[in-house]
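TL;DR need C-alpha cells for one chain.
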Amino acid sequence: MPAKQAGSYYRVSSGWGVRWYEDGRRRYRSGFDSKSAARDYFALVVRPRLDGVPAAPEPLTLADFAERFLTRYEVVRAPRSVKTLRARLVRPLAEFGEIPLDELRVAEVALWEASLPPRFRHAVMRSLRQVLGAAVEWGFLAENPAKTGSNPKPPVIEREILSPAEVDALAAEMRPPYGAAVVVGAWCYLRPAELLALERRDVGDGVLHVRGTKTLRSIRSVPVPLRAALALSEIPARLDTRALFPGPSGKPYSSPNNFRRREFDWAVHAAGLPETTTPYTLRHSGLSWALASGIPAVDVARFGGTSLAMLERHYHHLLVGSAESARARLDAFAAEQETAENRLGVE
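>> reply
TL;DR here they are.
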C-alpha cells in the first residue's frame, strides 16, 4: 500500500506555503501565517480530498459540519487547541448552527459580525472562516460565506513585564515546587500549559524538551539558563508522579486556571505585584528578556514555539534593540576582518 502524502512546507514572503501532488500534478497553496496553519490546511482540507471525501456530500447544518471538522481537527492538534477552537465557535453556532450550510449568506454573516464585541471579533471570525473554508474545500460549499471583508486584529494590549527580581519575589511566596515552576516558566518562556505538563524525562542536558504544545505530538527544545537550572535542581525527587509540578493529587493540573486559582493568585498579592499578573505574564516576561539580551529574534521564535510575525506584533520595541545589537555585531566583525587583512598586508 503506497505511503500517504504528508505535504511539503516552505517559507514565502507572505508566511508559509504547502505543496502536494494531486491528479498527477504538483499543487501549491501559500499565504499561511505559520507552518502550523499550513500543516492544518493540508491535514484538514487537502488530506480528506486525497482520501476520497465525496465531491457532492449530503446537506449539513453548520453545527453538523463543525462537529465533523472538529473531529478531524482533534487528530492533528493538541487538546487545548481544540478546546480554544470550540470556545470561539460558540457564538457563531448559537446564531447559525441550525442553518444548512448552503443557506448561509455573506450579508447575514456580515451583519451578525458587526454585533460582536471588538475584543472577540477577530478570533471568532477567523475560526468561523477556518471551518467554512474547509466546507468549501470538502465540496459542501462553492464559496465561503464568512469572507465578509478584512478581519483586522484588535489593538495589541500592553502586558505586564516582570523583572527577574520580581519573578524571584513571586517564587519566594510560593510553596514547593511551584516556586521553581515560576522561575522555569519565566526563564524558559513557557506557556502555562507547557509548564504544567513538564515531566522529569523532559529535563535534558541544558535543555527542556517541551511537550503539551499547540500541535499534537510536537516537541521542541528550549535552552535552560543557569537560574532555571538551579531551580530545577532544587526540586525533590518523587516516586509517585512523573510530573515536575503536579497538582495535589500527584497528576498534572488539568487546567492552567486551576493552577492560577490555587497556587498563583495569592502569591501575586503576597509579593506585591500588579493584580494583572497571570501565569502567562511569566512567558511574556521571558520572551522580553530574551529579545532585550540580544538573542536573535529567529532563535527566540524557535525556542518559544511561536512566529516572527507574533514577535513583531507584540515585541516590536524590543526587536528594534535586537536589530541594533545585530548591526553592532556585524560592525565588530567587519572591523576584525579589516584588522586581519591589514595584518596580512604588513606581513
